[in-house]
Specification:
Rossmann fold; Elongator complex protein 6; alpha/beta; nine-stranded mixed β-sheet; P-loop_NTPase; ELP6
Length: 261
Amino acid sequence: MDQRAPNLLDEALGLVDEEKTKPWPLSSRVVLVEDRVETSGAFVLHHLLKRALSPHSSNDVVVFLAFSQPFSHYDRVLRKLGCNLTAQRENNRFFFLDLLMSEFPDGDEGNKDGLVALYGKIEKVVSTSFQENKKCITIVIDDFSLMEVAANGATNYVLDFLRYCHTLTLAFGCSLVVLNHEDIYSSIERPALILQMEYLADILIKAEPLATGLATDVHGQLTVLNKEIRDEQGSSRNKICNFHFRVKENGVEYFYPGSKT
């Protein structure tokens, strides 16, 4: 059984459903996780991966594009969280695309063709899963910056790739989750690139160090911007949540500033 108590991150994302009767709240949505070199946001990917592969959502599928870490790393981390990726892969619920050593051929055509081929693999899994009546398909990119490296710095083509993946969220009700490092770009290139990615995102999650500096019992703060949330009257609004986090061996603790003594 997946005995999971609601936490502040789940609440901010709208994932609190005790009866497990509602559709996956992230369907047809793009989630962008932005972190810093000194404050990794990888734990957010781990959390969403576990949620998407929950026993309560046994008809859901994850397509994972790994540019940052091998399968063994994620399998080890998720086992500590109570999720067996090896078993999920054998059950055709977890499709792992190992892209650690990927490098597309030089030149515009090489970069373009490499990304087109990668998109073709994703689209094949998505369309096949959709035909098999899978409820929700989540596409995860574990490091957008390394995807740029694989594409020889062809940022425009990588952004086009994201836009094509975005069309899958609209056509098949997929979720798209992307992790990017906000502080690795120069002041010149950062604004346009980050703004375009944030424009695509329905949910923006920022993992940042504490404004007051380092603390032994607090590893950073999360800001979650959930765009166009609809209330009971049908009106849309943006929802912003901010809280602290502490990464532990078998999970992450979330709490409001000043609530821990």
